[in-house]
Amino acid sequence: MSLLVTGTIAIDTIQTPTDKAEGVLGGSCAYFAAAASFQSPVRVVAAVGGDWPSGHRAILESFDNVCLGGLEERPGAKTFAWGARYLENLNQRETLFTKLGVLDEDPPPVPDRYLDSEYVFLANTHPKVQTQFLSHFPKRKLVVADTVDLWINVARPELLGVLKQVDGLILNDSEAVQMTEITNAVTAARRLMEHGPTFVVVKKGEHGAVLVHREGVATIPAFPAEQHQIVDPTGAGDAFAGGMMGHIASVGMTNFFTIQSAMAWGTVTASFAIETFGLLRLTQITRRDIDERLRQFQAFARVG
Length: 304
Ligand code: AMP
What we know:
The protein is about 35% helix and about 25% strand.
């Protein structure tokens, strides 16, 4: 089953209360692709600038199932760069800078051999780019989009246009409030579904996530990590989406129960991503580690 992602490949600078990482590989697309690759081959369509470190390409290439045929390097341009600082509890962060670089230019072209993609993830990027993208995939079976506060602030009309065309939306609880002015996650999700999507996943950080779907509602806790295991929460959302979409593409089904199970795969994949800065931890694990942690998680999350 063909899974494709478009979004950002970034040079991240991250400050946590105890540590700092400068110039690490990040970006919505990078985290998503690495996470999804444990379940399914994943095609990447993204652009980077001439300043993109060769070491960052090597990291992405180290994932067997990440296909970089749609990664465009633009010598005269700058790679998207993002800096953020986490507050004491690691649940809140502030963005220190966002340098759009290549995001300010035309989106990267989609290679002909990717046009048959059936599962498409519009990772976090400008909503205008997300919309333009969809016209390329006539065989799409499931399209899911992600977004972030910046785009809700500066491109709300374009974002509402994206909602009309996608099957699913993934966003944080604070972003759901920002979009709807409704603090209840379930009600906010339903309001967002009025704009088009069949389902909305609202992520609540250490409190898990809720799925609101036309066929039902599901809730899932976060993986109960110990404080010392959480080094850098960056990319948790994208890794969650990657694990989730990778599972959906691997089973080839898109119903409510498949999405509910997929959220568990997303949760355990994200729990690895936050154990180091950047993608390092994801380069160190195998599918077997994810399977093992999924079993632990199922035991932790049993109800009734
Ligand atoms: P997450 O922690 O899941 O929200 O993802 C953080 C990643 O998204 C970082 O690696 C950033 O480089 C990237 N990112 C941050 N802001 C944006 C934005 N406005 N658009 C696209 N990607 C972004």
